C-alpha cells in the first residue's frame, strides 16, 4: 500500500533522492549545458530580508488586503500620475527598505555561474536589483526595478536617483517628467494589470526558447506571463497561461531542455512535470552547493 509520502512523491514528481544527490545531478546537467539561463522570484531574496508574497510568511499570505490595494496602483497612475507619486512617496513601501538590502549567497552563486561562462542570463521577477548588486551582468528585470523610472510613452528608462523626488513632492511639482518626450514617468516596477515592457518581454521569450537548461529559483510560478516562460522552454511555444492553468501541455514535449527548480515548496511546475526535478530547500544554501560541485566537475575536465 502507498504511504502518504509515496503519494506526495508521485503527485509532485519529486525524485526519490536525497538533497546532496539532487545537487550533484543538477551540477552535472549544468556543466553539460550549452545555454543555461536562471529564472528567479521573490524566494531568492527572502534571505536578504525582503519578504515574498505567497510563501508561508508572505505579504499576501498574511495580509490579503495589501494584495487588493496593490491591484489598484496601476489604475491610480493612469488616472492621475501626480497622485500616484504622492501616495508612493508618502506611504511606507510594501516590501520595506529595499535600498538597504544586500545580495545573499544565492544571488552570488548565480553571478559566479555567469562569470564561469555557464549561465547566459538571469530572468528575474524581482524588482530589488539584488542580482545586479551581486555582479550578474545580463539581468532581464521582467517586472522592472525600484531603482529606475520608466516613461510610459516612449519607454525610456532613467536612474531613480537622477531625480530629486523628495524635492518634487515638497514643491508640489510631481510627476517627474521624461527628458526625451516630456511625458509623466512611472516607477519602472510593473504593477498588477500593467503590460510587461515590450523589450524585456521579447528578450525573455527569446531566452526561454533558446536555452537548453533552466534553473528556476524561489518562485511560486503562478504569476503570468512570467510563469509561462518555463512552459515555453518545455514545449517551445508560447501559451497565454490558460493551457498551463489547466495543466494541459500545449505542444510537443521538448526533451532537450533540463528544467530544475530550487524552491522551499513544490509549485505547479513540479506537479505538472514541467520541471524535471525539484531540489526542495533554501536558495542561499542550495545554490552555493551547486556551484561548488560545478567547480569540482569543471576542474576534472
Ligand atoms: P512568490 O511570493 O509568489 O513565491 C515565492 C516562492 O519562493 C514560494 O514558493 C516560497 O515558498 C519560495 N521561497 C521563499 N523563500 C525561499 C527561500 N529562501 N529559498 C527557496 N524558496 C523560497 O514570489 P514570485 O513567484 O516571485 O511572485 C511574486 C511577485 O511579486 C513577483 O512578480 C515580483 O515582482 C514581486 N515581488 C518581488 C519581490 C522582490 O523583488 N524581492 C518580493 C516580493 C514580491
Ligand atoms: Zn518619454
Task: Describe the SSE topology.
Blueprint: H1 4-12, H2 19-32, E1 36-40, H3 59-62, H4 64-70, H5 73-79, H6 81-90, H7 105-115, E2 119-124, H8 130-133, E3 139-141, E4 148-151, E5 157-159, H9 165-170, E6 185-187, H10 198-210, E7 213-217, H11 228-235, H12 242-245, E8 258-263, H13 268-271, E9 277-280, H14 283-300
Parallel strand pairs: 1-2, 1-7, 2-3, 7-8, 8-9
Antiparallel strand pairs: 4-5, 4-6
This protein binds nicotinamide-adenine-dinucleotide and zinc ion (ZN).
Residues 151, 153-154, 156, 178, 180-181, 183 line the site of zinc ion.
Question: How would you concisely characterize the structure shown here?
Answer:
By secondary structure, the protein is α/β, with parallel strands linked by helices. It has helices at 4-12, 19-32, 59-62, 64-70, 73-79, 81-90, 105-115, 130-133, 165-170, 198-210, 228-235, 242-245, 268-271, 283-300; strands at residues 36-40, 119-124, 139-141, 148-151, 157-159, 185-187, 213-217, 258-263, 277-280.
Structure explained in plain terms:
The chain has helices spanning 4-12, 19-32, 59-62, 64-70, 73-79, 81-90, 105-115, 130-133, 165-170, 198-210, 228-235, 242-245, 268-271, 283-300, and strands at residues 36-40, 119-124, 139-141, 148-151, 157-159, 185-187, 213-217, 258-263, 277-280. It is α/β, with parallel strands linked by helices and 301 residues long. The chain folds into two domains: 4-50 and 101-146 and 195-300, 3-Layer(aba) Sandwich (Rossmann fold), CATH 3.40.50.1220; 52-94 and 148-187, 2-Layer Sandwich (SIR2/SIRT2 'Small Domain'), CATH 3.30.1600. The strands form two sheets. Strands 3-2-1-7-8-9 form a six-stranded parallel sheet, sandwiched between helices. It has a three-stranded antiparallel sheet with strand order 5-4-6. A hairpin with a 5-residue loop joins strand 4 (148-151) and strand 5. The longest helix has 18 residues, at 283-300. The protein is elongated and about 60 Å long. 39% of the residues are buried. The model has no long low-confidence stretch (mean pLDDT 90). It binds nicotinamide-adenine-dinucleotide and zinc ion. The site of zinc ion has 8 residues, from loops.
Amino acid at each position: 500500500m502507498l504511504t502518504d509520502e509515496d503519494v506526495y512523491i508521485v503527485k509532485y514528481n519529486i525524485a526519490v533522492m536525497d538533497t546532496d544527490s539532487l545537487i550533484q545531478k543538477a551540477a552535472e546537467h549544468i556543466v553539460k549545458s550549452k545555454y543555461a539561463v536562471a529564472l528567479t522570484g521573490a524566494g531568492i531574496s527572502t534571505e536578504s530580508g525582503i519578504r515574498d508574497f505567497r510563501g508561508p510568511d508572505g505579504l499576501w499570505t498574511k495580509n490579503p488586503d495589501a494584495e487588493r490595494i496593490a491591484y489598484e496602483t496601476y489604475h491610480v497612475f493612469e488616472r492621475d500620475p501626480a497622485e500616484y507619486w504622492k501616495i508612493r512617496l508618502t506611504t511606507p513601501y510594501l516590501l520595506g527598505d529595499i535600498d538597504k538590502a544586500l545580495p545573499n549567497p544565492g544571488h552570488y552563486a548565480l553571478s559566479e555561474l555567469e562569470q564561469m561562462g555557464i549561465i547566459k542570463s538571469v530572468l528575474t521577477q524581482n524588482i530589488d536589483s539584488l542580482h545586479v548588486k551581486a555582479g550578474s551582468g545580463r539581468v532581464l528585470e521582467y517586472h522592472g526595478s525600484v531603482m529606475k523610472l520608466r516613461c510610459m510613452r516612449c519607454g525610456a528608462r532613467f536612474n531613480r536617483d537622477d531625480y530629486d523626488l523628495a524635492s518634487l513632492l515638497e514643491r508640489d511639482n510631481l510627476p517627474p517628467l521624461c527628458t526625451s518626450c516630456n511625458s509623466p514617468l512611472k516607477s519602472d516596477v510593473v504593477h498588477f494589470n500593467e503590460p510587461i515592457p515590450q523589450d524585456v518581454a521579447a528578450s525573455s521569450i527569446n531566452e526561454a526558447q533558446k536555452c537548453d537548461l533552466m534553473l528556476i529559483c524561489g518562485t511560486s510560478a503562478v504569476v503570468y506571463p512570467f510563469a509561462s516562460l518555463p512552459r515555453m522552454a518545455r514545449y517551445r511555444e508560447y501559451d497565454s497561461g490558460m493551457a498551463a492553468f489547466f495543466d494541459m501541455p500545449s505542444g510537443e514535449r521538448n526533451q532537450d531542455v533540463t528544467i530544475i527548480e530550487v524552491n522551499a515548496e513544490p509549485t505547479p511546475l513540479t506537479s505538472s512535470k514541467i520541471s524535471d526535478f525539484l531540489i526542495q530547500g533554501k536558495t542561499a544554501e542550495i545554490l552555493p552547493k551547486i556551484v561548488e560541485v560545478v567547480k569540482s566537475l569543471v576542474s576534472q575536465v
